[in-house]
Specification:
The chain is an alpha/beta fold and 395 residues long. It folds into two domains: 209 residues, Rossmann fold (3-Layer(aba) Sandwich), CATH 3.40.50.2000; 170 residues, Rossmann fold (3-Layer(aba) Sandwich). It contains 16 helices and 13 strands. The strands form two sheets. Strands 3-2-1-4-5-6-7 form a seven-stranded parallel beta sheet, with helices on both faces. A six-stranded parallel beta sheet has the order 10-9-8-11-12-13, sandwiched between helices. Strand 9, helix 11 and strand 10 form a beta-alpha-beta unit. Helix 1 crosses helix 16 and helix 9 crosses helix 12. The C terminus is likely disordered.
Length: 395
């Protein structure tokens, strides 16, 4: 029997929290039964995970670019609709669409159901608010009708659910919280790995403050630099380890130069060995403006790291006693003092806590596999009933 093919609707499969969660799921699901394909939107055919997706048996389809990370092309909406209609007409094999990109779901979901064989449309909320500006306003408007187009409502956290789903849908139990799960054992603290990576990065004897995230507004690197600048006034033997890239990279680098702290910062760029880099960190700091439920916060806890995050992030991330919350309204000096306060501790193995709280990928992969199979076979039964009802028997 051929595997059930799930069409994941995404921006593009670069390294990021949402994309890493999808790939964690893809790697750990039974691919003889379930296969993932991808409908990508942001016009980057050489995205970070594309080669791995193809190796795992996935297919990648590109839609016309109507949105980049910093611009929305509203005049291309009609071109986008035509491309969607043609796609679903030509791909009747898809019965399940998993929409991780919710800002245009009110466009692609009705088209998938009308022109394709899609009977299950999953809306999956991964954020807790839209970005600022006109794009954010349009996103909020488009998402208001999600519940009427989607057959199933998912969210990574309660905050992510309440952003785009109605109180009625949430209280009725229609919205399912799907944990942003990780391969927890991969992040387990290992003193030998720590010594190795600290030596490679020349971090011996340094207090290492770490952060993993794209250089976008929501991650708030600007404030993170202010915090680190204050920390250096308390502990000169400190380094800031920044993992990721993004639109604001040059702005942040320029600010570091102006503050005179550029030599104290390690910019790693995109890395596939985040679990190894976390071994080198002493404190993980995440002063985000907004998040859904950040995958890296779970990874950091799995690595046994003390975490200091902004209090706008859902307290659902606190699955160990390693997490502290601070307000973005307090001075960066307060954050710096908090870093010093929590920096002296013994790293420990937190694997059991990650697993017990349902954030290990094996648990979530098993759940999602059963969900996909049930939806697919429900669809098959409905198709059979429809056929039997309309068939004309001739004597």
């Amino acid at each position: 029997m051929e595997p059930i093919r799930i069409l994941n609707v995404v921006g593009r499969m670069d390294r990021g929290g949402i994309e890493s969660f999808i790939m964690n799921l893809y790697r750990n699901i039974d691919r003889e039964k379930i296969q993932f394909d991808f409908l990508a939107h942001y016009g980057k055919v050489d995205a970070d995970f594309n080669d791995e997706i193809k190796e795992l048996g996935g297919r990648i389809y590109e839609m016309p670019v109507i949105k980049s990370t910093n611009r929305t092309y509203y005049t291309r909406v009609f071109q986008y609709r035509r491309a969607l209609i043609n796609f679903f007409k030509n791909h009747p094999e898809y019965r399940i669409v998993h929409g991780h990109m919710t800002n245009t779901a009110s466009i692609y979901m009705p088209i998938a159901k009308k022109y394709g064989n899609v009977s299950c449309c999953i809306s999956h909320s991964h954020l807790s608010q839209a970005r600022k500006g006109l794009s954010g306003v349009v996103t909020n408007l488009l998402q208001k009708s999600l519940s009427s187009h989607a057959t199933d409502l998912f969210a990574c956290s309660e905050n992510a659910a309440s952003w785009i789903y109605s109180k009625r849908d949430i209280e009725s139990g229609k919205v399912k919280i799907i944990n942003n799960a990780i391969n927890a054992s991969q992040f387990q603290f290992d003193i030998d790995k720590r010594d190795k990576i600290k030596k490679e990065l020349n971090l011996k004897g340094e207090l290492v403050v770490g952060h993993v995230g794209r250089f976008f507004y929501e991650k708030n690197h600007d404030f993170l630099l202010d915090i680190f600048n204050e920390l250096l006034k308390i502990e000169t033997n400190s380094k800031l380890l920044l993992v990721g890239e993004g639109d604001l990279f040059n702005d942040i680098k320029e600010k570091a130069i102006n503050l005179g702290i550029i030599d104290k910062i390690i910019f790693t760029g995109k890395r596939s060995d985040v679990s190894m880099l976390m071994q080198a960190m002493d404190v993980f700091v995440m002063p985000s403006h907004f998040e859904g439920l950040p995958l890296v916060s779970i990874e950091a806890q799995a690595a046994g790291l003390k975490c200091i995050t902004s209090d706008v992030i859902t307290d659902e991330i606190k699955i160990t006693d390693l997490v502290s919350f601070l307000s973005l309204s307090v001075e960066p000096q307060i954050w710096a003092k908090k870093i010093m306060e929590v920096s002296k501790y013994n790293r420990r193995n937190t694997l059991d806590l990650i697993v017990q709280n349902g954030y290990d990928i094996n648990f979530v992969a098993n759940y999602m596999q059963k969900f996909y199979e049930e939806k697919f076979f429900e669809s098959a039964k409905e198709i059979k009933k429809s056929y039997e009802k309309n068939v004309v028997y001739r004597v």
